[in-house]
Amino acid sequence: MNDHLRTFFDEHLEQVLAELPPEAKKLLDDVPLVVEDYPSREIMQRVGVRHRAALCGLYTGVPLIHRSVEHSGIPSDVIRIYREGILGQATSRGGEINAEKLRRQIRITILHELGHHHGLTEKELRTLGYG
């Protein structure tokens, strides 16, 4: 991914983060948000994704509703979002990136992964409009 496209994405990400509801911003203080160009092969194999552009985000960790004292020592929660997948959702067949769609997809992806942090399933997230 070229630097111009990465910068373009990151500028829109910053705008989305600034516009998130205060509750979501507070959650992101506790769960790191990592931005990568695309998922690693290991992650793709683990989640069963064949094409790296098919994945927009991933929550790793133990959802809050499943935590217990037995989970001490487990690596921290992390939300990863993937530029390539998100940009693909906002790009027309002609190759034009729609900035509004880009921001909407970034927002949906972040909120979707925060939903997983709280234990919501894919079905529940789709019902809420974040799937």
Describe the 3D structure.
There is one protein chain. This protein is mainly α. The protein has a single domain (3-66, 74-127), classed as Zincin-like, CATH 3.30.2010. It has helices at 3-19, 22-30, 41-47, 83-89, 99-117, 122-127, and strands at 33-36, 57-60, 78-82. A three-stranded mixed sheet has the order 1-3-2. The longest helix has 19 residues, at 99-117.
Helix content: 40-55%
Total DSSP E strands: 3
Q: What CATH first level would be assigned?
A: Alpha Beta
Largest sheet: 3 strands, mixed
> How many domains make up the coordinates?
1
Count helical runs: 6
Looking at CATH, which topology would you report?
Answer: Zincin-like
- Strand order of the biggest β-sheet: 1-3-2
Q: What are the SSEs and their pairings?
A:
Blueprint: H1 3-19, H2 22-30, E1 33-36, H3 41-47, E2 57-60, E3 78-82, H4 83-89, H5 99-117, H6 122-127
Parallel strand pairs: 1-3
Antiparallel strand pairs: 2-3
Helix pairs in contact: 1-5
Task: Provide a short characterization of the protein structure.
The protein has helices at residues 3-19, 22-30, 41-47, 83-89, 99-117, 122-127, and strands at 33-36, 57-60, 78-82.
Spell out the key features of this protein.
globular, 3-stranded mixed sheet, 6 helices, Zincin-like, 131 residues, mainly alpha
